[in-house]
Specification:
The complex is a heterodimer of chains A (about 775) and B (about 150).
Chain A (H helix, E strand, L loop, with lengths): L14 H5 L15 E7 L5 E7 L1 H5 L3 E6 L24 E2 L11 E2 L5 E7 L2 H6 L5 E6 L6 H5 L14 E9 L2 H6 L3 E9 L2 E2 L7 E7 L4 E6 L4 H12 L6 E4 L16 H13 L3 E4 L2 H7 L1 E3 L2 E9 L5 E13 L7 H10 L7 E10 L4 E2 L7 H19 L3 H8 L8 E6 L5 E4 L4 H12 L1 H14 L3 E13 L5 E7 L5 E5 L8 H13 L6 E5 L16 H28 L6 E4 L2 E4 L2 E7 H7 L15 E7 L5 E13 L6 E11 L6 H20 L31 E6 L21 H12 L14 H13 L1
Helix pairs in contact in A: 6-7, 9-10, 10-11, 10-18, 11-12, 14-15, 15-16
Chain B lengths: L1 E8 L3 H8 L2 H7 L3 E8 L2 E10 L2 E15 L3 E10 L2 E13 L5 E12 L1 H4 L2 H29 L1
Antiparallel strand pairs in B: 1-7, 2-3, 3-4, 4-5, 5-6, 6-7
Helix pairs in contact in B: 2-4
The chains are: A alpha+beta (about 775), B alpha+beta (about 150).
């Protein structure tokens, strides 16, 4: 069968409303009689609550109700463990302390909800905050990860003996034994700092209870509508079918919108039902910075052991991972770090230990990159430090140790976020790297460009790193494909969309199977009323899991087309031909039946059907992989550093990426570009800062610097590799986070190269001109 | 946040110290101070309107004087909170008699701020506090001049 649409640069079908500013977002949902919610949030990071007096607020005109934890009675309880810890890792310890919907007795981070005001308008609701008297007893805040781990630390959760949220060690081979044979051992302490998801659209939630139908309808911009549906149903004692969650257009997810059982999705449905009035809440930017979720924030103690010739013998990494005040999202992020630390190279001996720690900061859940960035950062940095010690070029050391196609599938043996031992399924990491070196013309840069620039007083540096992106993890996703009587196709999935181009890529896959025009395939994502099974949007898994389910469901529908046509024409199936939107008997194209008419025939209104026949040209399919599919690549950057201001400019950006089969090259490049802006932003601009009292000092875009278009390289050069994943029929691997992963270590390597005459060693991930200046000054003085 | 500075008052130490114990004088000097009430010899209650960049809010709180050694030194404890967060600070103030009918006041302190004031206003709070001190000292200089001349 020919693929008319797969791998073609089809323009996005969903862009009409997005690009004209007419897309309907959750805050645009108008429900008659709606009331507005606002959360009073804690100014303190850690405090004992004596009393929250809302009596005056309740008297304010326009205020309908005010609730504190006390007012929710038995409904108040800590939320579910959204992601359980892996049980497969022997000896692992995990203390579940899940997010509470609103603080009761104790405040554990600044921004935690203390009261919710329901009023005729958001203005009135927020004005009522001034009427609320919050009587608290401040406690010392737990902020420093390493100090928090110590037994002497103040406790975030008083019922635990320490701030340990988890302790997980994994080992392949035997690092300490391997180290004995090493010629060179390098140890470093490194920081990977805290960043925000910072989606353009903040969280939003509208709940409407229909008393007569006993039905809850929710509009939310969640990455996980089915998780929201499940938890709302459980919280309110309803059947899942009594709750419908609709995700309208969503202005970016990047991870934090996957977190459910926060104040909004727990409390607002309860209030809507209690008051029998629709309730709307739209998060403001400060709330988003303080009280959604965010990520990174790890401290690594790494050690690498090598032979003189550069062969890696082993790697050891003991790292502290901040989970924030609660750990409802389990260990996805640090497990990703463990798997990705050794996912590029032959590392026969690896010891990795997670020390996940509670602190008085906002909850940590995945943000694009999600633990992978950290693992890749520390490994790439350690290779650079080892290369310096060995007197080797950093590229030479990588070329010696990178995995090749012959070694695939490669079992690393480290259990990851999908709870199974990591298997690198496909790819040629060495080839990625070699192609990247060639594309950036590494030799020429070293021999001509850099020396010439030096003579002209310009500081240029180059960095070339390798990376992987574990994607497409289970458990499963599914979809339903239907050909309607008008001949058009509808696909519905529980997976929700935040700008990834799902309406186009799934339509491409289905259109090829059914031989219809791509614009005739309507894709409905994230409406639990249309499709009610699946896990959610995370881990770059949409294209692979929902894409494969689309392929499988469309194939089933295709089989139904042939079966129904065979019956209609009274000929065997192999004599049927599928034209564009119609069927006919081979050799007789003049006598055709449109797919719409065939859909009518597939749903007889009288008479009898044969046993086992299912009506309609409709089918549902699910896909769950045995383990994730790992994308890979390499990145070369050339940076210049202003000698006066230390501002870094990315002069060239050459990325090699392997995501197997490309569904849509336009969307693919867009995904990479978006990821790259986050990767560069994280490295050179963005950083969330808490002071020692747990006050976030960067809770607005005045202080949290987002990269601008002008901060991006002029051109993002991308070279695609095409090593198909053997795990799914189309050979797809994910790509959503790739761009965000390698810029950090590549830029650090390039900066050290730009100052190669001094022993510059960059040991943290989030830089700015003054940090770079301090590093250079320190190196010059050493 | 660290607060540190000094100011030369053109009056003898006793006069300066006395002024610092007069809520009316302080009330007139501190910009945005809406109300200041003396509870007892060492406690005041105050309401202050403050604007830090995009954050503008009222704070109410207490001022406590401890370790008082008139007219040499005093320790001030400030605790305030309001819609835009909270402030808690301790300041040590020292008055040195320079012998020429002038007094050097030196102060050093530590202030913890929280809430919106910290998360949105942090970047500006240093310059805002400097400007508050500057305005206050200018006013106090005038008040002092009048008082000293009257004596």
């Amino acid at each position: 069968m020919t693929a008319k649409y797969l791998s073609q640069p089809i323009k996005r079908l969903e862009d009409k409303y997005l690009l004209t500013g007419n897309a309907r977002y959750v805050d645009d949902i108008e429900v008659p009689g709606v009331l507005h919610a606002a959360f009073l949030r804690s100014d303190y990071a850690h405090a004992k609550i004596n009393k929250i007096d809302v009596s005056e607020a309740r008297k304010r005109p326009g205020v309908v109700a005010v609730f504190t934890a006390e007012d929710f009675g038995d409904f108040w309880k800590p939320g579910p463990l959204q992601v359980p810890p892996p049980t497969a890792i022997a000896g692992s310890k995990f203390n579940a302390r899940t997010i509470v919907p609103i603080a009761k007795d104790k405040i554990r981070y600044s921004g935690e909800a203390l009261a919710v005001v329901i009023a005729e308008s958001r203005y009135i609701a927020e004005d009522a905050f001034d009427d609320i008297i919050v009587d608290v007893e401040p406690l010392p805040a737990v902020i420093d990860l390493e100090k928090a781990w110590e037994d002497t630390s103040v406790l975030v959760h008083d019922d635990l003996p320490s701030n340990m949220a988890a302790l997980v060690s994994q080992e392949v081979g035997n690092y300490e034994e391997a180290k004995k044979n090493a010629d060179v051992v390098v140890s470093k302490r490194m920081l990977v700092e805290h960043v925000a998801g910072a989606a353009m659209e903040n969280r939003g939630f509208v709940a409407k209870w229909d008393e007569q139908d006993q039905q809850m309808t929710i509009w939310a911009n969640t990455q996980s509508p089915l998780t929201v549906r499940g938890s709302v149903a459980r919280n309110l004692g309803l059947a899942e079918s009594q709750v419908r969650v609709i995700t309208p257009y969503i202005g970016g997810g990047f991870g934090p919108k996957v977190m459910t059982s926060l104040s909004d999705d727990v409390l607002i449905p309860w209030i809507a039902k209690k008051l029998n009035r629709p309730i709307k809440w739209t998060e403001d930017r400060r709330e988003n910075f303080l009280a959604t979720t965010s990520e990174r924030d790890q401290i690594h103690h790494c050690e690498i052991a090598l032979k003189k010739d550069g062969t890696i013998l082993g790697f050891k990494d003991v790292f502290y991972h901040n989970t924030g005040a609660y750990d409802s999202y389990g260990m996805t992020v640090p497990l990703n770090t463990q798997t990705h630390t050794i996912s590029n190279y032959r590392v026969p001996n690896f010891y990795t230990e997670i020390r996940m720690v509670f602190t008085n900061t906002m909850v940590v859940t995945p943000v694009r990159g999600a633990g992978r960035s950290e693992g890749v950062f520390v490994m790439e940095r350690m290779i650079d430090f080892a290369a310096k010690k060995l007197g080797m070029d950093p590229t030479e050391l990588r070329l010696k140790n990178l995995l090749t196609a012959e070694e695939m599938p490669h079992k690393t043996g480290i259990i990851g976020q999908d709870f199974v031992a990591n298997v690198l399924d496909s790819g040629d990491y060495l080839d990625n790297y070699q192609k990247c070196l060639k594309a950036v013309d590494y030799e020429k840069f070293r021999k001509e460009i850099q020396p010439k620039a030096r003579k002209e007083g310009k500081r240029l540096g180059i960095g070339v790193v390798a990376f992987t992106e574990g994607t497409a993890v289970g458990p499963y996703e599914g979809c339903k494909v239907t050909i309607s009587t008008n001949g058009k196709v509808t696909m519905a999935t529980g997976y929700s969309t935040q700008g990834q181009g799902h309406q186009t890529v799934f339509a491409q896959i289905i259109a090829d199977q059914l031989n219809v025009k791509v614009e005739d395939v309507k894709v409905i994502t994230g409406d639990t009323g249309s499709f009610a099974w699946g896990a959610g949007t995370f881990a770059s898994r949409g294209a692979t899991l929902v894409g494969t389910a689309s392929y499988l469901a469309a194939q089933k529908v295709r089989a139904k087309i042939f079966a129904t046509a065979s019956k209609a024409f009274g000929v065997p199936e192999d004599e049927i031909e599928l034209g564009e939107g119609f069927v006919f008997v081979k050799g007789k194209p003049e006598n055709k039946i449109t797919l719409g008419d065939l859909a009518i025939k597939a749903n007889p209104m009288r008479g009898v059907v044969e046993p086992g026949v299912e009506p309609g040209l409709e089918a549902t399919a699910y896909y769950g992989p045995p383990h994730g599919a790992t994308g890979s690549g390499a990145l070369a950057v050339i940076v210049s550093v202003d000698p006066e201001t230390y501002k870094v400019k990315v002069e060239r950006f050459v990325m090699v990426d392997d995501c197997g089969t490309i569904i849509n090259p336009l969307i693919l490049d867009g995904q990479i570009d978006g990821g790259v802006s986050m990767g560069i932003g994280n490295t050179l601009y963005e950083k969330m800062v808490y002071d020692e009292n747990g006050q976030m000092l960067t809770a607005s875009f005045m202080d949290y610097l987002m990269p601008q278009a002008t901060d991006m390289p002029k051109k993002i050069e991308i070279i695609h590799q095409h090593n198909k994943s053997p795990l799914n029929p189309l050979g797809i691997k994910g790509i959503g986070e790739a761009g965000a992963i390698p810029p950090g270590p590549a830029i650090c390597q390039a900066l050290e190269d730009a100052f190669s005459e001094i022993p510059l060693e960059i040991l943290e991930s989030n830089l700015n001109p003054s940090i770079i200046y301090d590093y250079v000054k320190k190196a010059r003085n050493s | 946040m660290k607060v540190e500075g000094e100011h030369l008052f053109k009056a003898p130490r006793e006069v300066v110290y006395e002024m610092f114990n007069d809520p009316n004088a302080l009330g007139a000097a501190v910009p945005g101070l809406q109300k200041m009430t003396k509870i007892d010899a060492s406690h005041y209650e105050a309401t202050l309107g403050i604007r830090v960049g995009p954050v503008s809010a009222n704070f109410s709180g207490t001022l406590t004087l401890t370790d008082e050694v008139p007219p040499e030194k005093v320790t001030l404890i400030v605790e305030g909170k309001g819609g835009a967060g909270f402030v808690k600070g301790v300041g040590h103030v020292n008055f040195e008699d320079l012998g020429d009918k002038t007094t050097m006041m030196r102060y050093v302190g530590e202030a913890n701020i929280g809430g919106t004031l910290a998360s949105v206003g942090q970047r500006m709070i240093d310059s805002v506090s400097k400007s508050i001190f500057k305005t206050a000292f200018e006013k106090l200089d005038k008040i002092l001049e009048e008082r000293w001349q009257q004596k």
